[in-house]
UniProtKB/TrEMBL annotation:
It comes from Acinonyx jubatus (Cheetah). The keyword Transmembrane applies. Its cofactor is Mn(2+). The lineage of its organism: Eukaryota, Metazoa, Chordata, Craniata, Vertebrata. It is found in: Membrane. Keywords: Glycoprotein, Glycosyltransferase, Membrane, Signal, Signal-anchor, Transferase, Transmembrane, Transmembrane helix. This is Glycosyltransferase 6 domain-containing protein 1 isoform X4. The keyword Ligase does not apply. SUPFAM superfamilies: Nucleotide-diphospho-sugar transferases. It comes from the Eukaryota. InterPro entries: Glyco_trans_6, Nucleotide-diphossugar_trans.
Length: 291
């Protein structure tokens, strides 16, 4: 990323925080700011018009990466792409990075001058593990070209349907998604507790439990997260352990605090009934299978 783009990203993050800070008091029913002063984005904590006027002048490009292989592509990709094309960063330049194992799986989409679709072919699950395939492939593409093409990057699972505007209020240097179930349950959180695992968060420690189906931030911040995950997997493999991707993700965000958290409104599970605190569901996951 060139110097000008870095400045734009930095100013955008600072502005976003300052703009949101005075709005946080409007949602006393939920956590709106963390102990480390990162905003938690809920409906009612931001002003779309003000954000739109500001970010509309920044000439931003946002990336959205998705891996869709085998049956998951057949079942979910078309719904994901059509809904994302409509609701994800509407009015801004977006590059969709679609990682597929067969070009025939791609849906037909209406052309749009603000939407670019880049197909990144992969050869199935190269390690027999969906998460390793996704993260390793994405890391390669971030280094190869993505870091020079977009200011912010999101990676999401394909079993998702966008229902309302998923906009610039979500932008930040390092963005984490709160887990819909564990945010409200908030006990017996399934962190990795085995001391020998790289994903271990000791008993009595931890803050939130994060949903692995959405990550975001500056491209190089996303790359750093991926590298941390891959190093953790390698460490565990050498020790005969096999923790989950989501537990590794939670360990990463425990030691590298995200600068912005998305409320469960941005990744609601259709198996759950939305409580009163959920004012506006932005996107849903269509099954209990998640990243």
């Amino acid at each position: 990323m060139n110097f000008k783009r870095k400045i734009v990203v930095l100013v955008s993050c600072v502005f976003s925080f300052l703009l949101l800070e005075h709005r946080l008091r409007k949602r006393p029913d939920v956590v709106t700011i963390t102990d480390w002063l990162a905003p938690v984005i809920w409906e009612g904590t931001f002003n779309r018009q003000v954000l739109g006027r500001y970010y509309g002048r920044q000439n931003l490009t946002i990336g959205l990466a998705v891996l869709a292989t085998g049956r998951t592509a057949d079942q979910y990709l078309e719904m994901f792409m059509r809904s994302a094309n409509k609701h994800f960063m509407s009015g801004y330049r977006v590059v969709f990075y679609i990682m597929v194992d067969a070009l025939s799986r791609l849906p037909d989409l209406e052309p749009d001058p603000l939407r670019t679709f880049k197909v990144l072919p992969i050869k199935g699950d190269r390690w027999g593990d969906f998460h390793l395939t996704h993260m390793s492939s994405l890391a390669e593409h971030i280094l190869g070209h993505i870091e020079d093409e977009v200011d912010f990057l999101f990676s999401m699972t394909v079993n998702r349907v966008f229902q309302n505007d998923f906009g610039v209020e979500t932008l930040g240097a390092s963005v984490a998604q709160l887990h819909a179930w564990w945010y409200f349950k908030n006990k017996d959180i399934p962190y990795e507790r085995r001391p020998k695992s790289a994903a271990c968060i000791p008993f009595g420690q931890g803050d939130f439990y994060y949903d692995g189906s959405v990550i975001g931030g500056r491209p190089l911040e996303v790359l750093t997260l991926i590298e941390g995950y891959l190093q953790g997997v390698t460490h565990d493999h050498k020790n005969g352990l096999n923790s989950t991707y989501e537990r590794h993700l939670n360990k990463y965000f425990f030691t590298h605090k995200p600068t912005k958290l998305l409320s469960p409104e941005y990744s609601w599970n259709t198996a759950l009934r939305p409580p009163a605190q959920v004012w506006s569901v932005k996107a849903t996951r269509l099954s209990r299978w998640y990243f």
